[in-house]
Amino acid sequence: MLQTVRPAIALSPDGTRLVYSAGPSSVTTQLYVRAMDGLEAQPIPGTEGGTTPFFSPDGQWVGFSAGGKLKKILLSGGAPVTLAGDVAPAGVIGASWSSQGMIAFAPRGNGPILQVSDSGGNPQPLTRLEKGEASDVLPLFLPGSKALLFLYSIALTPTSSSATLAAQSLRTDERRDLLQVRGPTNLSNCHVSTPSMAGTAAPESTSRWGSKGTAIRFRDTLTRLTFEGNANVDPLWTPDGRKIVFKGNQSRLFWQPADGSGPAEDLTKRELYSNNVPGSFSPDGQVLVFMGNNPTFDLYTLPLRDGNPQPFLATPSNETAPRFSPDGHFIAYASDESGRFEIYVRPYPGPGGKWQISTEGGT
């Protein structure tokens, strides 16, 4: 049973290991670690009762909450170290480890986010509840550890109508609201997410985050960028943050300078399949992987140097949501070949077999 009341999964900074909290019940849990290039997970001794795992910046340590205490443990082995005792009797809702040696965490219940040294000590408030606020949760240090992202709500209940994503400067303590998240405050229903820690969110649920922190929200206005047909959807940033790829007229794929300095360019030069959706770029930005309906959803790669798409995976099943690995050697995707959608990984450009990553459904 994967624990989902609190953040239950942590990916190492280099993307090679996954740590998660699981157990036969919500009461009996433990942390497990699994290499991303393997299928077997191993329990981490000393983490019994652990929830809400989070990695140190160097990926050597994992922090977690257990028995009302905040702890850390070396992944290479050893006994757990208590960082703060009796600070979270009901657990924590999110924690983050900064490159400056501080850990931010949100005790479950009403209150601010706290911080403690990664060598241990007496936790101190990091955020301050404004008038009418009930709780600050889900802290995340931004790159460089100069600012903190977090959610705050007026009432921390399953029926809360909204929460607000805010950023706080760690130098001046100045806080700025970024956008309001409609719906319940739990993470599974939060409409703001990113595969990269860099960037600033646009105020729409279909937004993408700029790879170099391009400000969108801070302009305090929305400016139309694309004009290709009646529907321009599924935007995707290029790795260098200079262009945005999108699906435009007749399901063709276009890209355009993100600053609006030039017109859209047809990447495919011709009509391809129906409902083409860009997935992700290779790390060097030279290859785009996308899905197209022909007649089921299949995966294609588009080398930008010649604009000629090539089939990557075409089967009678539906393959969707392709994503390149950080090293560009693999593509992850969702497929319903088993009768329900699961997550798989294949080597790129191939040949090679596939590895099934999820076992209880995945999208």
Question: TL;DR?
Answer:
This protein is mostly beta strands. The protein is 0% helix and 41% strand. A 4-stranded antiparallel sheet has the order 1-2-3-4, with no helix packed on it. Strands 5-6-7-8 form a 4-stranded antiparallel sheet, with no helix packed on it. The protein has a 4-stranded antiparallel sheet with strand order 9-10-11-12, with no helix packed on it.
Keywords:
363 residues; mainly beta; Neuraminidase; 2 domains; four-stranded antiparallel beta sheet; 41% strand; disordered N terminus
Molecular structure report:
This protein has 363 residues and is mainly beta. The protein has 2 domains: 181 residues, 6 Propeller (Neuraminidase), CATH 2.120.10.30; 140 residues, TolB, C-terminal domain (Neuraminidase), CATH 2.120.10.30. 0% of the residues lie in helices and 41% in strands. The protein is built from no helices and 28 strands. It is globular, with a radius of gyration of 22 Å. The two termini are 18 Å apart. The N terminus is likely disordered.
Q: What's the CATH class label of the largest domain?
A: Mainly Beta
**Structural class, from secondary structure content?**
mainly beta
Radius of gyration: 22 Å
Low-confidence region ranges: 1-5, 156-160, 184-220
User: Could you give the order of the helices and strands?
Assistant: EEEEEEEEEEEEEEEEEEEEEEEEEEEE
Strand content: 35-45%
Q: What is the 3D shape? A: globular
In the sheet with the most strands, the strands line up as 1-2-3-4
> How many H/I helical runs?
0
Proportion of helical residues: under 10%
Largest sheet: 4 strands, antiparallel
Span of the ends, CA to CA:
18 Å
